[in-house]
Amino acid sequence: MNNIKELEINKSYVTYMFPFSFHEKQRQKLMETLERHHFRFFELNNKELQTGYYGEGVKIRHERLSQFFLPYIEDKLFPKTTKNRGFLRYSKEINEKFVWKLRGQKSNFAINSVDITLCPFGIGVITIRTLGEDQETLSDFLHFLSHFRVLEPKLEEEKGVKISNDSYVFETTNQLVLDYLCPSVKPFIIRNEHLEGYYGSLPFFEDARMMSSIFLVVKKDEEILQEHLYRVAQVDGRVEGEPYISSTNSDYIERFVKERLYDRYAPNTYTITSENVQATVTNNEEQTYRKDMEEFMGTMYYNLLLHYYYKIMLLKLSFEHSEVSWSKDKDYVKELIELISKFYSRYYFGQVSARQEGKELTHLLRETFNLNHLFIEVKKTLDDLYRAQENQTNNRHNMLLFMLTIYTTISGIYGMNLVIEDWKGFTDWSKVPGYSFFEWISLVTALSGIGLAIALLVSTGGKGMLNKYRKWKRDRLG
């Protein structure tokens, strides 16, 4: 660990993504609550929103966003009104400074703004944009990053964090986000009983850590090595106060970096993507890296958000079909199949940009998040489940046919006439005990047949109403 070469950082822009789930039926109420708490709906036509959320002097040109994505993607990522389907972004300026401390180490950072993006199918993402302007080493920055990403510390080495501003002290990142930055969202987030404390828990997600998008500006003369890129991708900071790297095999580090690196603008600027972070590291001067930074906060952020959502949704679908009970009827499985069909046709696209850079970054994200494998797995499992449910439905139909055959046979024996003389006019039930054997067969057959007919009518009508309700609910989800 003593042979690790440090990298001196001048500025660090970090965007954290905090995923959560909410009840879709409360979407409208949630949007109204956000507006009351001074969150503004984001739309490309409003040029006033090009500045203010990204840090002093940073401007994200909406024309770039519009031109980068394909038209059918643009309609989803940047809906013109809150009534449109897609990703509804609400933003709020924060512009406050904070201090992070853990066992004698500290980092100063500022939170520029917070976004709350309401995605389709009840998934939401809280985005926190931060800026660090203190000069520090790569080890110090990654040490802070690795702890700040943790929403609810579980391990002993993760505990003891203090995050403070001029007025408050928070013991976890979760408290900072949900009790201070976004308290209006907290009542709408679905809690998971298996992950206590993490209000934004998604039972199908890997762990309670935020995805991070990083833009690091290092000193002009600093050489950016594969070792540095590997540590950034793995978020290898410090262990027991010493710089840390999670591999001692230089060949492994080289392979790892090569598979995940976008080096179009080497040797001054590199972008590497892992399941934990997407990071751009540059040693250019400000007038040169300014355009790259705007791309990082604009097109690259939305590209990452879209594919991060893809990953969450595919994991959600996997989880939901794993939770299916065999006591559920066929309509429940149809609902899952319709859900994945809507997701696939409306939002899940292989290409999101016509530009070469966009295509290359999209490919990198899909490979890193393993999206193709996840999608094939979900679709195959749902198809298998649907076939199993079809077999169950066929068995029920066979049983119904068997029962109808019995009634038809008995009716045929009686010449299609099951009427007993005592049933004409006023029925005298006192004579029932004296019925002959064949009259008892007539009575039981008639009454059970009437009961079966009523049960079928009630069942068919009830399922019809339930299907209409489910269709209405699914239309609201999509």
From TrEMBL:
Chain segments annotated as transmembrane: 399-420, 440-466
Query: Which protein is depicted?
Result: Group-specific protein
Q: Which UniProt keywords apply?
A: Membrane, Transmembrane, Transmembrane helix
